[in-house]
Structure formats: C-alpha cells, structure tokens
Amino acid sequence: MDKTGVHSMRAAEEFLMREIAESSSKLEKDCFQIAFVIFVMGHVLAPRTKHDYGTIDYWGALANTENISQFNWCEFFLDFLIEAVCRLKNDMMANNPNTNLVGCHLFLQVFFLDNVDLGIFNKKHNVLPRISEFDQATIITMITMGTDLGKGPTSYSKCMIRQVSDLCYARCNLCGGVDDATNQAAEVGKFHQPTSLNEEHGNQ
C-alpha cells in the first residue's frame, strides 16, 4: 500500500473494490484481508473524529495475515469504546463545547436495547450476530418505547432489565456474582459486556 494517505479509509476502500478470486496471488489476498480490517475498524468498530481516517493502534496485528484471527478484536474495540465514553463524560462534566463522539455507538445502542424489557418490542436472542436483528426502523421504535415520557431521548429510567433466561448475554452484578434479578431499573453498570462470541453464547 502506498504510504501516501496510508491512514486514509479511501486507500483501504480502493483495495476492497478490486477484483479478488481464488486465482489471485497471495499478496493480493493478503492486501484484501488487511484492507477489510482497516475499513471495518475505521468506519464501524473504532471510528475516530475524522470519518476518512482511522487509528493505527492495531496495525501490528496485521503484520501477518495468518494471525489476524488470533487477535482479540472484541477486547480492542471495547477498550477503544470505553476510553471514548470516559473522554466524552469528562468533556461534558467540564462543559467543554468541543466534544467529539468516537467509538462504536451502534454497539451501545444494540447492547442497551437488547437488555431492557420493552414488552412486545423485545427481540428474541436466538439470532447471531445480534446486529442482524436491528435495522434503522427497529432501533428508532425501541428507543421511542424505552424513553421516559416528557424527559427526552436521554432518559431511560423507567426501563426494566430483561430476565437473564431470555438473553444470550452473561450478566454479573457489581460485586462479581451472577445477577439473576429481574424488574430492576436499567443500569448500564450492571451489564457484563461479552468479549467473545463464545461468552455471548453463555459458553455453550
């Protein structure tokens, strides 16, 4: 990949638009894999403030394409998201008008809506990946149903947590024990974020 604009998502997109087949050379296949990871991380899982540029913190994991699948991408993306949330919270507390939103907001939306009880609007947890159950119309409807009336889209205190038996997620309380309680007000701190697909399945 040409070093000119190497951090740009456009460079990765150009590789993805090229023809790739079984007969393609190993170099072409390797470049496609690397470009795919850079594109997905830069636009979906770990986007930064500049939509056309991404972080290079994970590029060491791309040095050998044979080992890409061995890297803990879930942990990286969650760490990136938590860091972004902490930075946003600090900016808001400091009344900083130049607050930037980075990280995968879509994950937070799906994870929250997947864990609160919205009655007939609840999604069954028999489909993976979970994102495939949420289109734009579904997300808007569920957010509307979960929002406290008269308090705007940032208040969800009326939402109750769904029963553990209905979920594909593991859940623990702040003391480290398994939380089987239901009908509790939604508190993000009580949700355990799975770091792998196996954990999301409940290690089954």
Automatic annotation (TrEMBL):
PANTHER family the record matches: AMINOTRANSFERASE-LIKE PLANT MOBILE DOMAIN-CONTAINING PROTEIN, OS07G0283600 PROTEIN-RELATED
Q: What is this protein called?
A: DUF1985 domain-containing protein
Species, as recorded: Aegilops tauschii subsp. strangulata (Goatgrass)
Q: What is the lineage of its organism?
A: Eukaryota, Viridiplantae, Streptophyta, Embryophyta, Tracheophyta
